[in-house]
Amino acid sequence: MRKYKIMNIKTLFLVCFVLTFFNIVILGQTKDKITKVVIDAGHGGSMPGAVGKLCKEKDINLKVALRVGKLISDNFDDVTIIYTRKGDETVDLYKRAEIANKNKADLFISIHCNASDNKSAHGIETFVMGLGKTEESISIAKKENADMLLEKDYKTNYSDFDPNSPEAYIIFSLYTSAYQKNSINFASKVQNHLVTNTKMEDRTVQQAGFWVLYKVAMPSILVELGFLSNAVEEKYLVREDTQELLAVSIYNAFVEYKNLVDETLKPYLPIPNSTKAAVKISESTTESSNVNKGTNPETTTPVTGSAGATDTLQTKPVANDIRFKIQFFISKDNLKTSDKKFTPLSDVNKYNENGYWKYTTGNFKTLNEAQEMLKAVKKIYKDAFIIAFCNAQKIPVLEAQKLME
Questions:
Q1: Which in 5, 6, 204, 333 has the greatest CB count within 10 A?
Q2: 29-296 CATH pick, 3.40.50.300, 3.60.40.10, 3.30.1330.60, 3.40.630.40
Q3: Which residues face 47 on adjacent strands?
Q4: pLDDT tens per residue, range 338-363
Q5: How does pLDDT run across 183-211, given as a tens digit for each residue?
Q6: Is the overall model pTM greater than 0.90, yes or no?
Q7: Quick check: helix, strand or coil at residue 235?
Q8: Closest alpha carbon to 187 in 240, 108, 243
């Protein structure tokens, strides 16, 4: 009898623990405001990151990071910016995650530049935390995690994790996060704005085992702005006007994401006039290379008609091709639009974006019509929201509004 009571107490404790854990997760998922953002300029100090012929990665990372932070601070009174570093200083990898977690941030943005033994490799890619399944994604994770080996007491700080050992990345196969959905959502917006505005190669949103993303308890991304190992791309990245363009692109992606979370309609900043030079970068690097870009098909599938290196050179779409839809469901499984889950709605359609199937209803010519429909859909699917398409290409709602003016 006594043993039975002890077992009951243990069971009760376990149930309470699990309920507490899931309450924390649910609270984390349902937070409806973004008020604290951590901006992480990758590397720094004794950790230079990738080293090109003209510059070091740590310097470009810092310039873009500080500019992104200033743009957010100048335009959002309700957002506090926290930097992992503001100068050329050494900040251990684990401390970057600690900074974000201690400040209870709502978003973590880590800014980097890429490098490869293949000097023709080029383009922009944005990562979320996950188990990278290609040699390319594992290689990039090793590169970014390698800074821990430069730390004095890295074995203690990282529990003997060896960033150069493929076996060490098995721990990431157990990774699950309440923030992954939002991380992918934000990463998609960052990738889209950067590729659309710079006309650089779209290496897509991917998953990889970055230690810093693994340890932060909030939606988080790591963006690789381009390759310093590519001579043409390095010349482009060191330019101040390019860095401004990159910063504005990340800022506008943040605006789009915050508008979605906070249910606001903050406008974008205008794009700086450096697009023409960016087109030349894309053309020259593409012509000099026939190599595989290393896209991970298991984690990323572009939206039909989404902007890639060629699509971004097309003329701006006309306003009368714009349609507004209500997105109400997302799944990794390719469900039929006639699935019983969707029986409360008619006119269900779907599209694939970043490895996820996304389900919509409606096809409206005006935003007002979509907003009226949204009220009804939210009664069934409370997380539903409005998206916009132009010529079968997904675009930000604010951009659609501007095109219709």
A1: 204
A2: 3.40.630.40
A3: 44
A4: 888 888 887 888 888 877 889 999 88
A5: 889 999 999 999 999 989 998 888 877 77
A6: no
A7: helix
A8: 108
